[in-house]
Structures are given as structure tokens and as C-alpha cells.
Amino acid sequence: MHKYAHLSLVLGEDRSKLSKRHGATSVDQFRKEGFLPEAMVNYLCLLGWNDDTEQDIYSVGELTDAFSLDRVTKSPAVFDMKKLRWVNGQHLRALPPDEFAALLAPQLHELGVTTAADVTPFVHAASAMVAEKVELLNDAAPLVTAAMAYPLEQTIEEVPDNFVAVGHAMVEAYRGGTLPDPAADGFDAAWKAWAKGVGKQLGVKGKGLFLPLRVAATGSLSGPDIPAQLRTVALAGGQVACPVVPLADRIDQLEAALSTMAPAPPKVDTAALDEKLGLLARARDGGALSESIYDKAKRDLEK
Q1: pLDDT at position 271, please?
Q2: How far out from the chain centre does Cα 78 lie?
Q3: Cystine design at 51: which of 42, 66, 257, 288 (Cβ 3.0–4.6 Å)?
Q4: What is the pLDDT of residue 278?
Q5: What confidence category does residue 137 fall into, taking pLDDT thresholds of 50, 70 and 90?
């Protein structure tokens, strides 16, 4: 036989009685905002109850096993929307990629991002791109829409250090056919290997490499992972209702922007430089060069 019991009152964040003025109150409204049923059950069970552990994230099965009336508190609980969003985000990130894509597909269509509610290669790429960025399913749509755009004109006034050199390297790689194809399998690894090579060629790394690469590739100073964005753009053809700037057009815009800036610095032959530095070091170690002459020659070579 079922047992029923009253829980303590649930309050809004201002500690007044929870009401419509505090936001969504119907299950359907929470669904439309992108909350998962499992996350709602998880969070609601935490209002006025705990199992005397630090655990916050539960499956329905775990809650069924753990719940007991003797752990229900008498004090009113506060409905914390930030905590609910966080719980929802944890449940989203725990989903297998195929399940997340299946949930995201109708949301993207309903919000006008895609032309159909099907789970397409584009939706798979988009879901992988936003998986670590969203707390609600509805959070994905603006991220995907932004990734389709290329706002370089708005960003160009605050371009990071090394942008000109890195931008020219990207244009040259694309024109020369050595830039990895975002639509190809294994693009993520290929992009990272190419970017590492650019960094070695230009003698830059870390933020000095990846921030200008981000601006050159996406037109923005922030956003999801660069190769994830480029792959999503590459798979967008015919499946997206919002404006899309493909890679070819991005390169054209990037090249045009670079033409108005300082010319690209001459390429550094890193292999030849390393060889010369090695010869100097051996001459110093062999006593043919003094330390002061070695230091001066090394500085001259590295200029």
C-alpha cells in the first residue's frame, strides 16, 4: 500500500512562498525550457530530504533505493534555480553522445536552428561541440547559431598578439591544400597536429598561438572548441536554417582583413636555425668560441 506524507513548505529564493512570480511552475514549462525529467526528479527529491551523504546527482533507481521518510527535514526548503540548472547540466553530460544528440535534434528544430528534427551528422557534430557548455537543452541553440557566424569585422579591433602571422599561416595552408579538412574523419587530431606545427614554425605556443588561431578560424575571442566549431560548420550544408559562413568564405574574409594590416613576417626556417645553433654550441663546448662570442652570435641568429 502506498504511503503519503506532507513535506515542509517550498520557498522561493527570496524565502517567500513559491509562486508563479518565481518563474516556471508547470512540468510542461520546465520541459520547454530544456530540463530533463530525470534532473527534475533528482532536484525535487533534494528539497527537504538528503541521505546524509555529499551526493547531489542521483538516477531514479538510486533515489528509489536511498529515499526514506526519516531523512525528511522539518525546515522549509528553498527552490534554487541555479542549483536546478547545475543538476540538469550534470545529467546532460552523463548522457551517451547518441542520446544527447537525439534530445537536442528536436530542440534545435523547434528553436529555428535546423530545417528538420532529424538526428543528422550536423546534429551529432553540434551536440559534441556544446556538450560541455550547456546546462539546459535550450542553451545549445545560441551556441550553435553563433558558431555558424564569422564576426571577424567586430573582433578585428581587438585582435590578439601574433594574429597577423597566425592568420597568414592559416590562409597559406588553406590555399596550399595543407589545412586539414573539417568534414573528414579524424579532423580533431589532424587540426591539433597542424596547429602544433604552426606554433613550432612561428615560435609561439599556448595562448599566443591558440587565441589568434581562434579569431582566425571562428572570428571570435571565445566559444566552444575550435575544431568542433569548424567541423559543425563543415557539416551544416542544407541542414541549417540560420545563416552559415563556410570555411572558404572565412578564409576570403580573413585574407582581406590581413591585407589591411602589417605584412606577414618572413618565414623562419626552424630546422636551419636549430642546425646553426647546434654548430655554435659545439664550437663553444670545444673551446673554439668564448662564452661572450657565443652569446652574441646566438642572439643575432634568433633575431
Answers
A1: 67
A2: 32
A3: 66
A4: 77
A5: very high
Beta bridge partner(s), residue 11: 17, 78
Share of the chain residues as helix, strand and coil, in percent rounded to the nearest 5: 60, 5, 40
Q: Return the H-helix or E-strand segment holding 274.
A: helix 270-285
> Which amino acid would we find at residue 208?
G
Residue with cell 555529499: 54
Rounded to the nearest angstrom, the gap between the alpha carbon of residue 222 and the centroid of all alpha carbons in its chain is 9
At 228-273, the pLDDT tens digits run 999 999 999 888 999 999 999 999 999 999 999 866 555 555 666 6
Q: At 176, list the grid cell.
A: 596550399
* Cell 515542509 belongs to residue: 8
Residues contacting 219, CB < 8 A, separation 6+: 149, 150, 151, 152, 154, 155, 245, 250, 253
Give the whole-angstrom CA distance, residue 39 versus residue 88: 5
Q: Residue 237 has which C-alpha cell?
A: 550544408
